[in-house]
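User: UBX domain-containing protein 6. Structure?
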Amino acid sequence: VKKELMAEAAASERRLSTGHKGPVSAVEEETAGLSVSGVYFICPLTGATVRKDQKEAHIKEAILLHFSRDPVAASIMEIHTFNRDREKVKLGVETIAKYLDNIHLHPEEEKYRKIKLQNKVFQERINCLEGTHEFLQAIGFEKKMLPVPGQGKKSNSIRIEGKTRHLSTVHVFVETTEEYYMLKEEVLTKLEDLKDCKEQLLSCEPVKAQLDRQLCVFKPSPQAAQFELPQDFYNLTAEELKREQRLRTEAVEKASMLRTKAMREREEHREMRKYNYTLLRVRFPDGYILQGTFYAREPVSVLYRFVREALRDDWMPFELLAPGGVKLTEENLAFNECGLVPSALLTFAWDAAVMADVKASGEEQKGSPLKPELLSAVQILS
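Assistant: Predicted structure:
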């Protein structure tokens, strides 16, 4: 198994070495006309930026590549990342931890150093999970055929040099063997290392790619409120979206004036579930526009932090106004709860009281509020 993983890791390294490492342009040639070329993620293991539909395959390859460097860490990541049922993972990990605890407490007892592969608990809790065999082998277990105590049968034939020899008068006792994982003797001298492996196994979290904000700054544009989004932003397929739009149009035509508040709220709730992501733009007093991609269910506080990190004077308080001029004051609300999906243009405003103090002191805000390094990469909104 180890050789196979190493070979796959080598192939993965060649593939990943050609992966995209730099920032993603807001508009690429093949997606001309779209406000953003797609949804992208940053792999925490390689630092590469990959498209949404490539994310899982890339992470899997990155973990396999890690086997050549640290097989214990790689197998732990595999267990926690490749298996989706978190309850099964928890049960399997706790069972392995119990095996290791017993070895640590009773290193002199052989029964704790071996695991029968056909054991019901092993089959139901461990064998069903990806990465568990790799982990056991990485920490020092090896597969062996061992006799089962008290089991066997008499036979009048034996195997000699690959050939069966029949004995007419002598019967021999043939032991029944089964496959076990047996801990190597040398591991017993490094029990603290085994304990560390157990702690890593219990504390690990799934490897998750980080959403790439795809931060962009645009020059002032009359098209700031116009959005054309790629399919990545939607939960529904293109066909399902068209059908939903047709049905909604028909419903509005039939009973737009007869809907109750509850009916409108139900429709808005259904609308919110259609989107996984949202593309948000913030227009500054000088007309420049800051753009970023967010999860639809992220809180408004994330947007405030995103904007603050882009400011030249990040200590100054400011406000964000939603379309219509409503202040975004409830920072714990999600974007889809504020009607800011699947896209929205917001307005930036300095805190009025602070600006009054600035003017009273005779100082003026000069230049753009945005950091110079962002302005140096400014784009034209097309």
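The CA atoms of residues 101 and 131 lie 20 Å apart. The longest helix spans residues 86-105.
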